[in-house]
Each structure stands twice: as C-alpha cells, then as structure tokens.
C-alpha cells in the first residue's frame, strides 16, 4: 500500500492502486474432502502435504519415488500415490478434477512445466518457492481453531512474512480458537433475536469489548452466555459520536484507543488535516465522509458538520469524528461536543498527540528547557475575517518561554513583525516544521527577521508549525 503519498491530500475511500506485489488477493479455499494434486515426493512435498492433510484434502501424489513420510501417508490410506514421472502425458491425465495443484519437486524446470500445464487448464497452481509461474501462493499462517491469520507479502519477502507471523502468534491469545467456536455456536441464537446485520454486529462487538470474550476464551461458556444474554436483552443502543485525536500524521502515533475506535466505527468524518496513511487504518466497510475544504468550495460550515454528526448518531450510527492532532487544541472539539450535548447525543473523547508534541519530537526541538524556557505558549496565527491578528502580544514577547504558533504560515510576516515590535531581538530563533512526523517532513530554522522570507522561498505550505524561542538553538538531530 502506498502511504508515502501522505503529502498529496486525502484519498477517496482508501483505495490504492494495484501493483505486482499487492495483486495477490488472499482467499480461503475449502479443502475438506477435495482432491489436490501434489507433484513431487520429497522433502518439499512433505511440508505442503502436511498442511494439506491438516485441512482435510484428498491428496494425489505424482512422483517416481516417495520419501518415507509420504510413503507412510500412502500406507495409512491418507494419500494416493500415482507412480511415474511428472511429464506432460501424466499431468494431462491427472490434472483434470483437481481443485489445486502444488508443484513441489526440487527441480524448478519441472515445477514450471507443471505450472504451465495447470494454468492452461485454469487450475490454480503453486510452484513452491517460485511465485513467478504460480497462480496462487500459500501465505504464512497463524492458526487458532477456526481462526486463520494469513500473512503474505505477495512473494516479495517471505522472511518478513514469517517474522510478522511470529509477532502475530505472540499477540493472539491461545483461547482465540475457543472464542471463535463459542461465537459460531451462538450465531443462530443472536441472528434470530436480531435480524438486522447492523444490530448483530454491534452485539458481537460489545461482547468482544466486554468480559464475556475472556470467559469464552477460557472455555467458561456459562459465564459468557450470561454476558451475551444481558447484551441481547438490553435495548438497542442509540448511536454515539467519538471525537478522536489522530495525531499529527505518523500512524504509529495513534493511541491504542483511537485505533480500536477506528476499527469499530460505522462512519468516519474527516478533513484535510488527516493524512491518508491514517485513513487507511479505518475499518474497510466504514463510510468515509469528507467534511474538509475542497478545491472549488470552502469547508463545510461547522454547523453542518455538527448536524451531520448528530443526524448520523440519532440514526444509530457510531460516528467517528477523526481529527488531526488533539481535538481540544485548535480543533473545535469544544464546540462540537457542546452541540452534541445540546442534541442529547452521547459522546466519547480521545486525546491525540498534538502537532506541537509531534513536531517537537520529530524535529529534535524541545518545547521547554531548563536554561531558557520555563513555559510554553500555544497560540493560533489564524487571522480574523478582517485580517487582524488578535493575539496576546505582550505575553508572547516574554523571553523565558517557547511560543508555538499553529496555523501561522500565511500570517508569518505579521507574526514576526508583531514580535519584533514588542522588543524581541532580530536574531531571536524561529523554526518551522512542515508536515511534521510525516514522510515529507521539512524543518527550517532562522530568526524573526529572516524566517518569513525563508518560508516564502521554500514555499512552505500548511500544515506547518512555527516554534519561536531559544529552544530552537537546542535542536538536536540523531547522529
Ligand atoms: N488539533 C490540531 C491542530 C489543528 S489547527 C492539533 O492538535 O495538532 C491546524 C494547524 O495545526 C496547522 O495549521 C498546523 O499549524 C498545525 N499542524 C497540524 N498537523 C501538523 C503537522 N503534521 N505538521 C505541522 N503542523 C501541523
């Protein structure tokens, strides 16, 4: 997935272009009782054969000779041996009627010939360790009962896939298989009470969020049933709004809570400040609603955004209002929740890493410093409609602090002039961090007298943060 386009504005619906590596589409194939042709009887065939037997396939092994393990399978009646070379006539005879073919000999040319013949018959074929002639590949798997997590890099980096599998392995609780079996066994009961898909989804999500999930994982079905029944009996929950800070752009800076809500929302309202990499992490079937500025028109007025949230929540949706940075720092979070309260809509608020924190850390500029900055002031450089900057100039000119200016790029000349006018020296340090924490981050340092010119020359664009004060001199970059 291409997330390096973080600088080019939000993408629609998180659809990325396909490329040779992402063109591998994972599906699960039913193998129980199904015929699979395994070409080769050696070590490589053993690995694949074991996997196939685990999934209940009926295997025909086409090989001249058999490794003792495969021989054992044949003798126990679990596998049929078709003796002979994997030449064209043998393949033409045995390929038809197979659902899958594994070309698993240790001879790449033979495997490729098998692949070509199977392909000609439109039978999915995997030439082991050779993605190029294959029409399917076998992903690395994590298994917990009926639960399968498959990791594939599209053949690009099998070692990475295996490493990721190990990490997921450690992450997935042992009882996940039991939990899945429990949920399957209670499915009919839930569907009967709640015929609407949306309602059922919500019940199961609430179940998974509550203690019942852990109980089912531990095999305590009686307790889990009590929880599930309580959820089934509860009246249908009304919708709600989650106001969530998504941080300054690097998806790794999301909080766990933000990520969880992003995975659970029915709809997501977002604007320009949100990097596309973050949108990619929203649940696939959530409705993405763009409420920011578009080229040919202004941003939706705040009232309309509020009304949209309220309308959706009242219709029962779990609405995620996803905000860049932190919702309560120049994010209009306060106004939005006031409107929600007035309409009687329940909300949850999740803080995010604000641009000041993100930009400071990713540019190496501390916001406070024992030697020179005992305080830090966040101000907005956004001018009022008449172009006037209504700011606490006297406070901002205090030298023992850092001043962080949000939305200050278009008014930078006025800001610098204002501070100089209040007596700060011409060489007072200033930094600009553009697209902080994102792949295209740029950092500029200068002084009150030259920073506006620098920004203009470098064509600095929003979002960018201005940091004023001696902390800029303490900037450190990792060796
Ligand atoms: N609620 C947000 C701020 C919204 S105001 C927060 O807490 O960060 C929008 C301003 O935030 C931008 O004009 C810019 O000054 C700053 N900003 C947001 N994301 C930024 C980023 N990734 N890099 C630099 N500045 C950013």
UniProtKB/TrEMBL annotation:
Query: SUPFAM superfamilies, alphabetically?
Result: NAD(P)-binding Rossmann-fold domains, Siroheme synthase middle domains-like, Tetrapyrrole methylase
- Gene Ontology BP, a term: methylation
**Pathway where this protein functions:** Porphyrin-containing compound metabolism; siroheme biosynthesis; precorrin-2 from uroporphyrinogen III: step 1/1; Porphyrin-containing compound metabolism; siroheme biosynthesis; sirohydrochlorin from precorrin-2: step 1/1
Every Sirohaem synthase dimerisation domain range: 176-232
Q: Where is the Siroheme synthase central domain?
A: 145-170
Show the catalytic activity: precorrin-2 + NAD(+) = sirohydrochlorin + NADH + 2 H(+)
Q: What is its EC number?
A: 2.1.1.107
**Regions that span the bilayer:** none
Q: Where is the Tetrapyrrole methylase domain?
A: 241-451
Q: Which GO terms describe its molecular function?
A: uroporphyrin-III C-methyltransferase activity
Q: Which Pfam families match?
A: CysG_dimeriser, NAD_binding_7, Sirohm_synth_M, TP_methylase
Keywords noted in UniProt: Cobalamin biosynthesis, Lyase, Methyltransferase, Multifunctional enzyme, NAD, Oxidoreductase, Porphyrin biosynthesis, S-adenosyl-L-methionine, Transferase
Q: InterPro entries of this UniProt entry? A: 4pyrrol_Mease, 4pyrrol_Methylase_sf, 4pyrrole_Mease_sub1, 4pyrrole_Mease_sub2, CobA/CysG_C, NAD(P)-bd_dom_sf, Siro_Cobalamin_biosynth, Sirohaem_synt_dimer_dom_sf
User: Which enzyme type, at the first EC level?
Assistant: transferase
Family in the record: Belongs to the precorrin methyltransferase family.
Task: State the NCBIfam families in the record.
Answer: cobA_cysG_Cterm (TIGR01469), cysG_Nterm (TIGR01470), PRK06136.1 (NF004790), PRK10637.1 (NF007922)
Task: From the Swiss-Prot or TrEMBL record, give the protein name.
Answer: Uroporphyrinogen-III C-methyltransferase
Species lineage: Bacteria, Pseudomonadati, Pseudomonadota, Alphaproteobacteria, Acetobacterales
